[in-house]
Amino acid sequence: MEKNFNKTFYITTPIYYVNDIPHVGHAYTTIIADSITRFKKLLGSDVFFLTGTDEHGQKVEKSAAEKGLKPIELADQVVGRFKDLWKALNISYDYFIRTTEPFHEKGAQKIFQKLRDKEDIYKGIYKGWYCVSDENFLPEDVPLEEEDHKICPDCGKRAEIVSEECYFFKLSAYQDRLLDFYAQNSTFVRPPSRMNEVISFVRQGLKDLSITRTTVRWGIPVPDDPDHTIYVWFDALHNYLTGIGYDWNMERFERFWPATIHLIGKDILRFHAIYWPAFLMAAEFPLPQIVFGHGWWLKDETKMSKSKGNVLDPHVILETFGPDPLRYFLLREIPIGLDGNFSHEGFVHRVNSDLANDLGNLIQRTLTMIQNYFNGKIDEIDEENKRDEILRQGFKSLKEKVFQFYEDYAINRALEEIWAYINSVNKYLADNEPWKLAKDSTQRKRLGRVLFQATAAIRAISYFISPVMPESSAKIWDYLGEEKPIQEKMFSELKFEDFKLEQKIKKPRPLFPRVVLQDFLKEEATPPAQPKMEEKMEYVTFDEFKRMNLRVGEILNAEKVEGTDKLVKLEVDIGTEKRTMVAGVADVYSPDELVGKKIMVIVNLKPAVIRGIESQGMLLAAEVEGKATIPFFPEDVPTGARVL
Ligand SMILES: [Zn+2]
What we know:
Layout: E1 8-12, E2 16-17, H1 24-42, E3 46-54, H2 58-66, H3 71-88, E4 95-98, H4 102-117, E5 121-131, E6 136-137, E7 160-169, H5 175-184, E8 189-190, H6 192-203, E9 209-210, E10 212-213, E11 221-222, E12 225-230, H7 232-237, H8 239-242, H9 250-256, E13 261-265, H10 269-282, E14 290-294, E15 297-299, E16 302-303, H11 314-321, H12 323-333, E17 340-341, H13 344-374, H14 386-407, H15 411-432, H16 434-437, H17 444-465, H18 470-479, H19 517-525, H20 542-546, E18 550-560, E19 567-573, E20 578-584, H21 591-594, E21 598-602, E22 608-610, E23 613-615, E24 618-619, E25 622-624, E26 627-629
Parallel strand pairs: 1-3, 1-13, 2-3, 3-4, 8-14, 13-14, 15-17
Antiparallel strand pairs: 5-6, 5-7, 7-9, 10-12, 11-12, 15-16, 18-19, 18-21, 19-20, 21-24, 22-23, 25-26
Helix pairs in contact: 2-3, 5-6, 11-12, 13-15, 13-17, 14-15, 14-17, 15-17, 17-18
This protein binds zinc ion.
Zinc ion binds at residues 131, 133-134, 152, 154-155, 157.
């Protein structure tokens, strides 16, 4: 089965574990995959983009039990949250696989059976240090701590000795074949530094891998030996086969397998670059072309994870900005292989500088001038002179670079080049001063030419950014009077000359409003609210008002939230219970002066996670020039009293 990588393109994200909550880290991987998918479609490739969820295993079983749910009920809830997030981010996946789907379970069992028949899987006894939290036996080389126990190197929790009958995969038999494969496919793992890590790991020697459990019930049963369930990782990796049809839509499976690129976080490199190709060799499937290990988005210099409580919930950003600024920021800020540190300052800077100033202003003023000076339709232009040519020439070289960088998965470099071009268009307008030309009626053709060149350039820009910012580019495309959707224009056919004289331009609306950092932080500190009403008084009925549960709360504790100027974490007694709340008042009040004070609290506001802290309510304060003034109740007002 030989595959032409240029014709079909199969891209995957890892399947996300349903014991997690969707955060910026998941969004990052999925946005990369989506942008690459959109770019490949512009090239006319036959693309399949697979994402989904990993739903089996001990941790899911435990978490579900803690919540009083069946594992599948927990999975259903989390799947809903992931799908909502992908919708909000404009993710255009072709299939969302769940490892609890019957066709996946059947497919994984079939492969297990095949490997057992050829004795790549055999039964034995495994005794070793086991991390319950990670569902993983620790590597042998983890040293013993004092008191003769071992600590899991991944999560830092104490491991237990576990001895069990289980099935092993004969990984040791694949060491040489893997090394041969890496030697012949030196770009299999990217970036290259990670290829070296993988090779040196394999050279140290591979041990057979235990791939079943008798202690876990929430898993796929081993065929004909149902006391054993298949190890969650063995199960999960096979989603890449079953998700495109292995064993249930073989026509599609043959069309897309092997995968062109598995996008993964660098923490799961070993599974994808060593175990997975060995499983595939054993099952006699062709191997994927690339495993790309991307870096992590750090918050306060540490990896975001639920257990560390520092995850960044993308919903607040999405509700304020829509999908494109976040998509742009994550892909522009760092190359795909490196780590990045997420800061609100950095995000707001990108939105204001790159999106609002450079791109947004360019479009707004150019198209507005066409409205004002030509009634929306440029109808006469003079000959293109040397200065005008710059934009057309710039387009040609930009097109080549953008192609090359997207092809190399260097999306940040493609965006850098596009922004350099945006700035050259801004410079062109500044040099040619169309607003001055407009004052002289003899210059009408010259004015037409200047606006025509700039608009042709804007059209190209909107096309080139479309894989990363599909929503904004579609709007720009529409303002330009393009009739067909952007994705129907093939990359190879895109020309500067496509923009035609007398094309009817629509009146633009600002695409990327500027953001004030303080307002944004306040937005983050306030649980997501209804969209702001624009200066229109909306009445609520008394019954609606009564739904707000407002009470007198007493502040028991207050401390500043590290790494922020404004946020303070409060422990508040509301009469019936104590609540944790985060408020944006630390720039006005010191924690010490808040303790003991009685405040007005809305206690039935939907909880929101702010800087990793769940805020279970909100204190009310007046806003005066961006600063909070809190109304305090006299001491003799009882804590918990209802405010009406
Ligand atoms: Zn662990």
